[in-house]
Amino acid sequence: xxxxxxxxxxxxxxxxxxxxxxxxxxxxxFGVLVPYAAFVTFVFGFIYRIVKWAQVPVPFRIPSxxxxxxxxxxxxxxxxxxxPSSWPGVVVRMFLEIFCFRSLFxxxxxxxxxxPFSADPPKVVYGSAxxxxxxxxAFHWSFLLIVVRHYRFFTEPIPWLVQFLESLDGFxxxxxxxxxxxxxxxxxxxxYLFIRRVVVPQLRYISLPADYFPLFLIFGIVVxxxxxxxxxxxxxxGVKELxxxxxxxxxxxxDGIGIMFYIHLLLVSVLLAYFPFxxxxxxxxxxxxxxxxxxxxxxxxxxxxxxxxxxxxxxYEEYEDEFRDLMKEAGIPVEKE
Amino acid sequence: MxxxxxxxxxxxxxxxxNELLQVDYTPPDIGWMDTLPVDFRPxxxxxxxxxxxxxxxxxxxxxxxxxxxxxxxxxxNWKEIIIKGMAERLEKYRSFKLFMDICVxxxxxxxxxxxxxxxxxxxxxxxxxxxxxxxxxRKYFTFGGKWFGKIAGARELTIDVVKEWFYYLFQCTExxxxxxxxxxxxxxxxxxMIGRELLVEVGCHVNWAIEPVANCFRTGNHMGILPHAYKDxxxxxxxxxxxxxxxxxxxxxxxxxxxxxxxxxxxxxxxDPGIFTFMxxxxxxxxxxxKGLDITWSxxxxxxxNFGLFTSHEMIKRLNAxxxxxxxxxxxxxxxxxxxxxxxxxxxxxxxxxxGPADFLEEPxxxxxxxxxxxAKSTKMVHIAEFTADLIKHNKLELDPSRNDHINVxxxxxxxxxxxxxxxxxxxxxxxxxxxxxxEMPENTIREQTxxxxxxxxxxxxxxxxxxxxxxxxxxxxxxxxxxxxxxxxLACICAIDRATLVTVCDYWAPGVEVTGIHEMVAxxxxxxxxxxxxxxxxxxxxxxxxxxxE
Lengths: 337, 551
Fold this sequence. Notes:
The structure holds two protein chains of two kinds. By secondary structure, chain A is mainly α. In chain A, 57% of the residues lie in helices and 4% in strands. Chain A has helices spanning 4-23, 27-55, 87-100, 102-105, 131-149, 160-169, 181-199, 201-206, 209-232, 236-247, 259-274, 282-285, 316-329, and strands at residues 108-113, 123-128. Chain A starts with a helix and ends in an 8-residue tail after the last helix. By secondary structure, chain B is mostly helical. Chain B has two domains: 12-39 and 60-204, no CATH class; 213-525, no CATH class. Helices cover 44% and strands 5% of the residues of chain B. Chain B has helices at residues 17-20, 51-56, 78-90, 94-101, 114-119, 126-141, 143-148, 159-169, 177-181, 188-201, 207-219, 227-245, 267-270, 274-289, 313-330, 341-355, 384-393, 415-419, 425-434, 465-471, 473-486, 496-509, 518-525; strands at 260-263, 295-297, 334-337, 381-383, 409-412, 490-493, 514-517. In chain B, strands 2-1-3-4 form a four-stranded parallel β-sheet. In chain B, strands 5-6-7 form a three-stranded parallel β-sheet, with helices on both faces. In chain B, helix 22 (496-509) links the parallel strand 6 and strand 7. In chain B, helix 19 runs parallel beside helix 23 (518-525). Chain B starts with 16 loop residues before the first helix and ends in a 26-residue tail after the last helix. The model of chain B has no long low-confidence stretch (mean pLDDT 95). The interface between A and B is large, with 101 and 118 residues.
């Protein structure tokens, strides 16, 4: 609880702050200044972090090889993707990692099984454990589609792709307005990821406030967004006007958009600003991971370490000087007789 | 009546199966930052590096001390040294910097570690092992950690933290199994390796790694075998081979102008069952001699393994340099490497970068089959499993697999050849050609998901017995499974550390299963010119199939 509470408190505080701001009519601050600042922080912060990582050299080529390497053409089971020997394999490996979470798909759970009333020793057994993968995938893909859907607020006319995704997302035609599948999925996924963290003892043990905070934040964003769409109804025309004002750099804040919108907006702004300084940067970092984005071709192509420096070695001459007599006696050839 | 000797914590018999198997995975009630200091109980830590060994290597802070001492006699400015060392490495290794930053603590790695599965200590979950270092990184290198401290997952570097690092970074075998499952490829081995480098800077390392390193630096091999003794031991093994096969064989050392230089771990010349693998090499080379193999051994580069990998990146380079230097001095064309795990991680992922380019060598070509080893075009070093698989494919070996009918084999993929190279099929191809009974262990325990022997990365020593048995549980359990299901009695591997440590693991968790290298089986199946008509025994002096009961 000591870990969970601070994260929850911050999110609740933000909701209160947004409500107050809306009630006090601080539109210019919460409708313009904060979102702008958050957006700028996100863009520059993200770039800054990537550049900082990219500036650090990769001294050694250290891919985790997860399959048979390239050796003889006649050997079966060569793994072109899990143990790529050149860049096309790496591209496919990275694609599968980033879009399908391939490594997480491998997940298993190990348990010790005790057989009651048996003389047999307990067994270590490995079971399938795909829920984390499934929830992770549902969460990230839903998030992406929701972001793309929001593009409708920032352009006129609305691009056909956005309209197409919207109709796809709402194809079940359930309720009025039609329930987006991604809304339901992301809510379920975030809830699962949270419950898992609280219920599984090992996960609870390793979790930091920085693990709960984004979950609460995103939960708040999803719920406020859904409330606006399905229940409280806000002035959508006004929201579009505001959003178009942002992108055309002529922000105007229409009256009466509603408190729920400001809550949603502040939480999104905080998420954006927090993103570059948090673990959420795994989104950028995964592209740079040297155990995944390099080919296993060290024996074919020399990898250069920019800071490779000479080290103190024990030369053959020093070795022979110490052991020359012993070597001669044993009939081992020497350089100096 | 004689008093029964009580076993000590460094003996297998000290540990009762039912006690060791009561693994409690529930973490303690208090947070992991508050569970210091670490309890250094016997069986879970390794004796510290001796001063004389550190001196040989010019390593910092040589002194006599013990982890159970209150005062570790660190240099006065130990904190500054570690923080500075960390800063330096954050600018040199993208892996380290990235892995400090992007972990989301999803927990997928938690039950992938053999030490966690067999021990249940939460700090042996790879994620938490890395957090031990990460928390210090946050404190001194991130905005959030500096200002918000514990709430941002940061903590001060204290003496107790250093002690905790020592304890847990030497309960990691750098096997990389967790990195296979991590969605971002975070490799705990990288964190462990760099954490150990930082400990090196203040003089805290384990003797079981540093003594081999010091030996290797001076004498050319981990075991500290001097040149004449290396030759004597080889001659002794040649005599053993003659006893078994009636064929007289030879081997030569440091011969200039040989086409190929052979380098293999010295552990195999030293002890059972490695020596049988060593005898396998000698037999194979003898067999191929008339067919055009021109090969020599070196006493200077008499170590394939590289305990530098368990010490520091610099030490990898210092030890590895001998391989190319010796091949150059002798004027060899290329290098053939024996069965060894971490050796091949070094050769595949570090050697060429550190000590290359080997432009004085030639692209390796098998003198027997003419096969070009194109996958070793740049390093010019070929794995003996590749070499032998190619020979078998081209029908260059006359084999009688039925001679191995007395054994029923399973194959243990060693960590590094599988996860830092990917040599999975060559050994299997060889085994299937030299013996008739082969059964795989369950799929979650082989290939890229293979389990460590529990004693890699400098941990395979007796005083570490409890952790080795715990860490060996997943492997031992899988061996036990095939033993009971298929009657497996032999565990094959291509790693010298495995041949030393898996004996203990099998004796404890799967008694009755013996450990072997694959070239022992190759040589037992190999039909030699002039061998005694009905070879009755194998290299272990064990009766071959159909010969049991004959004398």
